[in-house]
């Protein structure tokens, strides 16, 4: 039997899979996910959302977020000023990443719901098929589906192009923020 073990990659972008074999021949072999323990320093990838088909990230930063229980700001202390700026930069970067993920999920969820609704309307207009469908019915369904996809692409072309522009603009802004954070960490390391 094959056993597939999923472990999070430290960068948080994907799972690393390791396949283990065993001599148990009781049933068919199939890869299985094993539960991954949530950690404070590892980002995880969740199963795909059924509507948007996006695999959401589970960001592991809850323990690193500044606590709001203290009435004092870390910026009030002169020795902690640089740490406060670094924390603010990290927080801004994390929030930007999460905002981009949410925007992407919302766009694709709305687009997919609209697509499925319009597809259902178009297919409902077809005459009911016999069981099994005849060659004529199959050809008619294929023609209707082909026309639907062409109509869908034409109707949503500009919406998709605008979304891609927004997504790339936000992605590049996030990458710039990541670079600023990386440089700030490096210069802080060398100053110590």
TrEMBL record:
Membrane topology type, per the record?
Peripheral membrane protein
One annotated GO biological process: intrinsic apoptotic signaling pathway
| Subcellular localization, as worded in the UniProt entry | Mitochondrion inner membrane
What cellular component terms from Gene Ontology apply here? mitochondrial inner membrane
Which keywords does this Swiss-Prot/TrEMBL entry list?
Answer: Membrane, Mitochondrion, Mitochondrion inner membrane, Transit peptide
Asked whether the keyword Cytoplasm is assigned, the reply is no
Read off the InterPro entries from this record: COA8
S-adenosyl-L-methionine recorded as keyword: no
Superkingdom of the organism of origin: Eukaryota
Q: Where is this region: Disordered?
A: 22-47
Q: Which family does it belong to?
A: Belongs to the COA8 family.
Q: What is this protein called?
A: Uncharacterized protein
């Amino acid at each position: 039997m094959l056993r597939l073990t999923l472990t999070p990659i430290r960068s948080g972008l994907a799972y690393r899979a390791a396949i283990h074999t065993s001599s148990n021949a009781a049933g068919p072999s199939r890869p299985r996910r094993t539960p991954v323990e949530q950690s404070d320093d590892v980002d995880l990838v969740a199963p795909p959302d059924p509507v948007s088909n996006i695999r959401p990230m589970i960001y592991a930063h809850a323990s690193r977020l500044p606590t709001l229980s203290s009435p004092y700001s870390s910026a009030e202390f002169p020795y902690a000023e640089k740490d406060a700026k670094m924390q603010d930069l990290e927080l801004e970067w994390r929030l930007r990443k999460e905002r981009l993920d949410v925007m992407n999920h919302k766009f694709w969820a709305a687009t997919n719901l609209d697509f499925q609704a319009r597809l259902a309307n178009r297919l409902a207009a077809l005459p009911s098929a016999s069981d099994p469908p005849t060659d004529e019915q199959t050809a008619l369904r294929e023609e209707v589906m082909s026309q639907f996809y062409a109509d869908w692409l034409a109707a949503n072309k500009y919406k998709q192009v605008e979304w891609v522009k927004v997504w790339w603009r936000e992605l590049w802004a996030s990458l710039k923020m990541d670079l600023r954070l990386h440089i700030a960490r490096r210069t802080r390391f060398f100053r110590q």
